[in-house]
């Protein structure tokens, strides 16, 4: 084995384990969604966004549409700006890795890793933040497009196709926003990794527990949708 890999084998294995836990969690969500399409709030709100688009475009609620899209754009813009500022800050820290390692030893009294691995940790932080920036930027781009699409007049023949396309683009923007938030969440284990490989695994487990609590749709909402669908079938 290469000497560098042997020296940092524990850190690298913990990093792989952290990424594996993160991937297994999302695989678990996909499996649950196959049995229960409304298990996550993301799936539930996708349906809500489709209904919102239909309500706005058929009811001529132009002001409501613009205000809602403006709020979503402002949120994505703020988070994108924060991500790029943090990335630049981490890059400036990486340029002073040697001095930073000495300070880290004094402040934490923890046997931190060598300069090469410490720089690698900062590099992963930068890559993660740039991924968040890209996701939020794509979300802003799509929200700007939707401001024009949702108010575009269409004839009755093309209205259905137009609403489907607008709803598709709105959900695409929301998914990019969701990916950006996921990148923000994963930044926390990477930060704790600076304190040691064990902290990386503990922070990953804590992050997954928090995401599991946030992602699940409340049971009342999951049960309300099937009852509503059954009522509509009985009525018909």
TrEMBL record:
Q: Which residues cross the membrane?
A: 72-94, 122-143, 192-214
Q: Does the keyword Transmembrane helix apply?
A: yes
Q: Which UniProt keywords apply?
A: Membrane, Transmembrane, Transmembrane helix
Pfam families (UniProt xref):
DUF599
**Name of the protein in its database record:** DUF599 domain-containing protein
């Amino acid at each position: 084995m290469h000497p560098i890999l042997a020296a940092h084998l524990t850190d690298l294995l913990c990093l792989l384990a952290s990424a594996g836990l993160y991937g297994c969690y999302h695989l678990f969500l996909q499996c649950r969604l196959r049995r229960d399409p409304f298990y996550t709030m993301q799936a539930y709100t996708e349906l809500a966004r489709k209904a919102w688009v239909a309500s706005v475009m058929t009811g001529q609620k132009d002001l409501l549409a613009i205000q809602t899209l403006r709020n979503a754009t402002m949120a994505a813009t703020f988070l994108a700006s924060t991500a790029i500022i943090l990335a630049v800050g981490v890059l400036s820290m990486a340029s002073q890795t040697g001095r930073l390692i000495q300070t880290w030893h004094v402040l934490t009294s923890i046997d931190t890793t060598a300069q090469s691995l410490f720089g690698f940790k900062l590099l992963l932080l930068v890559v993660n933040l740039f991924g968040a920036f890209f996701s939020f930027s794509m979300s802003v781009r799509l929200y700007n497009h939707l401001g024009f699409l949702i108010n575009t007049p269409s004839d009755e023949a093309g209205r259905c196709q137009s609403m489907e396309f607008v709803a598709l683009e709105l959900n695409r923007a929301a998914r990019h926003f969701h990916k950006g938030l996921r990148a923000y969440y994963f930044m926390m284990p990477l930060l704790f990794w600076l304190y040691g490989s064990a902290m990386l695994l503990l922070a990953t487990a804590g992050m997954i527990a928090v995401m599991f609590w946030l992602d699940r749709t409340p049971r009342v909402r999951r049960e309300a949708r099937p009852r509503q669908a059954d009522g509509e079938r009985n009525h018909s």
